[in-house]
Amino acid sequence: xxxxxxxxxxxxxxxxxxxxxxxxxxxxxxxxxxxxxxxxxxxxxxxxxxxxxxxxxxxxxxxxxxxxxxxxxxxxxxxxxxxxxxxxxxxxxxxxxxxxxxxxxxxxxxxxxxxxxxxxxxxxxxxxxxxxxxxxxxxxxxxxxxxxxxxxxxxxxxxxxxxxxxxxxxxxxxxxxxxxxxxxxxxxxxxxxxxxxxxxxxxxxxxxxxxxxxxxxxxxxxxxxxxxxxxxxxxxxxxxxxxxxxxxxxxxxxxxxxxxxxxxxxxxxxxxxxxxxxxxxxxxxxxxxxxxxxxxxxxxxxxxxxxxxxxxxxxxxxxxxxxxxxxxxxxxxxxxxxxxxxxxxxxxxxxxxxxxxxxxxxxxxxxxxxxxxxxxxxxxxxxxxxxxxxxxxxxxxxxxxxxxxxxxxxxxxxxxxxxxxx
Length: 422
Ligand code: DCP
Ligand code: MG
Prior knowledge:
This protein is α+β, with helices and mostly antiparallel strands. The protein folds into 3 domains: 1-220, Alpha-Beta Plaits (2-Layer Sandwich), CATH 3.30.70.270; 221-271, DNA polymerase, domain 1 (Orthogonal Bundle); 287-413, 2-Layer Sandwich (Dna Ligase, domain 1). Helix content is 38%, strand content 20%. It is built from 17 helices and 13 strands. The chain has helices spanning 2-5, 21-41, 57-65, 91-94, 104-110, 121-135, 164-179, 191-200, 211-220, 231-239, 245-248, 253-260, 263-271, 301-321, 354-358, 361-366, 388-391, and strands at residues 9-10, 49-54, 74-77, 86-89, 115-117, 142-146, 149-153, 183-188, 205-208, 287-298, 326-335, 340-351, 375-385. Strand 8, helix 8 and strand 9 (205-208) form a beta-alpha-beta unit. The longest helix is centred in the first third of the chain and has 21 residues, at 21-41. The protein starts with a helix and ends in a 31-residue tail after the last helix. 36% of the residues are buried. Bound molecules: 2'-deoxycytidine-5'-triphosphate (DCP) and magnesium ion (MG). Magnesium ion binds next to strand 2. Residues 53-54, 57, 148-149 line the site of magnesium ion.
């Protein structure tokens, strides 16, 4: 039983796999205490948001399906003798300092007895769909963020259950019963807090941040844990003397905007516990892209160009399948020392076809060190996608061949299909 391997850390006592009626009642009583804390302290318009995130998702599926892997440091990813990176690792492997996105070769040095497993994406997708389906028993306001995590707005839920904490607990148990996998949950009054909360007691834990504790919680939270704060922003914040959410309170909107652009406003609000972002059930896809990591670093400019052109072809195909295009085209490069850069260009007319994107490549590549520096990863993305209304007049662009060129006038002559390299 994979769940028993993990340390269960809950805010309230909760005997994890024990699903007896008595136990359910005990849980219920202990939860009521939490919910009463929430309801006495909070304004009635407060939302109830749950963030659920599976624990060591890919690695846990492997441990579930292959019992001999249970209790072992399992790393799902590429070949440690090759150039692969860690996609997921079990908590046993994390104890050795292994984490996602680390080169597998390094992971093996840190944990020589780790068991490396190749990803089985189809299996993970299958499990993911099963888990996501469980969420809809409570609410239609489900926003999947990735294969193993989602936000749920349960303010008004289909079960008429007033306790978001109770829903989160039942969901964790239901997920365990349906899949044999453990999930962690965060419960709070907005997305920002719920997401941070779910990571506080991982694995197999739940954290509830009632609104009246939100400010105190954010006040001591290191800014590195804030959503949207990567290494660069964190350094910048530290240089300004901002180490915790509480430090942000000393800065005006103007000052934060000057330092961090639009995100500065987000930081200003978050420091005050304000995050009005709704849970968006049909989250609009923001970008379409693809990338590839090489078995061996590449240097030759011609090779880079050929690979990027191929990626452009793949992206154009995806855009065509989704019947859309986007206003921003980005090229991503990761050099052999893992430094990663992005170069982008924008056009109000947008990028739909291979031809349109290829035309931008010389400019984008000229802004990189391609041809002079070893590269381990290349990627192409189109973002700022056109919505349905915006793209409807553009549909003609995608009429399938054979339509002789010149049959349409003006902008309508380009056919993404016609110029696809296969
Ligand atoms: N993943 C990946 N590459 C990454 C990060 C994640 O392929 N750089 C995949 C593998 C993970 C899954 O996505 O299992 C979910 O990502 P999470 O960030 O939720 O990480 P885990 O579920 O593995 O661990 P945690 O318990 O920290 O959530
Ligand atoms: Mg996860």
